[in-house]
Design goal:
Elements: H1 3-11, H2 14-24, E1 94-98, E2 103-107, E3 112-120, H3 122-125, H4 151-154, E4 160-163, H5 174-179, E5 186-189, H6 191-195, H7 198-208, E6 215-223, E7 227-228, E8 235-236, E9 241-242, E10 248-249, E11 253-261, E12 269-277, E13 291-292, H8 294-301, E14 314-316, H9 317-320, H10 330-337
Helix pairs in contact: 1-2
């Protein structure tokens, strides 16, 4: 499916968009449904679909604000449904977790983050104050025990503890790097062919953007997208759950929304959004094949990313720089993580606005 078609889908109503997407994607072959998928997929598999700003949950969750005025003032209800709040607010609760290197919102149901935001600059990436060898994966005790992901949930699961904000982006401080190893910054990711390969190259691409921009902000998170059943033609959301008891969801896809800032007050922001399947991806696959409209990610995630960014300040990232990967082996990437600065050049733009 072409990007123009996907853009049209992202712009129409939710109901119409669902129907149109189902019709357009009907002819697409389906991904293998085994635990560790091997088929690469393009971002056109995205099935386009608002979230209350998250609140930190260390204190008791707040009771909702004033109730709406009844439509019929002449009716006095004989019941009070909101009386349930005297026993506690059911939720949902979005655990907001601001750290030195990340800010995130946690999904208690899936035991994965809704999103994790980071900020990288040339200075932050060229400051060497942290060493990954001194960092360890840890459970996030700010999340109530019954809702948090645990280390043993990943044990022999077949999935990596996949960073949403990579440790390499926080090597300016050991404490900052350590915070990227909290399980609230993790999701189960396919290892070979994805987390240790294509996804890692994608993270490197984001770092190399700082060769062209003085400030880059990135929001990363999981998606759980529907797939059309080849037998009855119906769309369903299906994903594996790991752990004992099984409670950590394995995302079907991951997104990154990138804000590359020109550094000027009220200046231009090059905006890019990408959706990748949680599966093996051939390193030869063009990164631009996973580019989608920001609105498509918003539909799929229920989140909003750029509602306060005026259209006149927006530029398309892949029209400002070449959106391509620099493939390096795993050992070389690990060496870079220990302190080397990112490569000095990002490929020159192939086209400009």
């Amino acid at each position: 499916m072409s990007k123009s078609t996907l853009a049209i889908i992202a712009g129409i109503s939710a109901a119409a968009g669902s129907a149109a997407t189902a019709a357009i994607l009907a002819s697409r072959s389906q991904r293998n449904s085994s635990r560790t998928p091997t088929r690469e997929e393009s971002s056109s598999d995205l099935y386009p679909q608002k979230v209350v700003p998250p609140t930190h949950t260390s204190p008791a969750p707040p009771v909702p604000g004033p109730l709406p005025t009844p439509l019929r003032k002449d009716i006095i209800p004989p019941v009070n449904p909101t009386g349930i709040f005297q026993y506690g607010f059911p939720g949902p609760i979005n655990d907001l977790r601001p750290n030195l290197s990340t800010t995130s919102s946690f999904d208690r149901r899936t035991r994965n983050p809704h999103w994790v935001a980071e900020h990288i600059t040339p200075v932050s990436l060229n400051t060497n104050g942290g060493d990954r060898q001194h960092s360890t994966f840890v459970e996030d005790e700010s999340i109530p025990e019954k809702f948090r992901a645990k280390l043993h949930d990943y044990f022999r699961s077949g999935y990596d503890r996949g960073h949403q904000v990579p440790a390499a982006d926080a090597k300016w401080s050991q404490e900052a790097m350590d915070q990227t190893f909290l399980l609230t910054n993790m999701c189960p990711q396919v290892g070979d062919g994805f987390n240790r390969d294509y996804w890692a190259h994608f993270e490197d691409f984001c770092r190399r953007l700082t060769n062209h921009y003085p400030s880059v902000r990135i929001v990363t998170g999981p998606l759980y997208l529907p797939r059309r059943d080849p037998h009855d033609g119906k769309w369903r959301v299906s994903y594996e759950v790991i752990g004992n008891p099984p409670n950590v969801a394995v995302p079907t896809h991951f997104y990154k929304v990138i804000f590359a800032e020109d550094g000027k007050t009220g200046g231009d922001v090059s905006l890019g959004a990408f959706v990748l399947p949680n599966a093996r991806i051939d390193n030869a696959k063009p990164l631009e094949s996973f580019e989608v409209p920001v609105e498509a990610v918003e539909r799929a995630s229920g989140l909003e990313f750029a509602s306060k960014l005026p259209a006149q300040r927006r530029k398309k990232l892949c029209e400002q720089v070449t959106c391509s990967l620099l493939v390096r082996d795993y050992a070389e990437r690990q060496k870079n993580l220990m302190g080397q600065a990112p490569p000095k050049q990002l490929p020159a733009p192939t086209r400009t606005l």
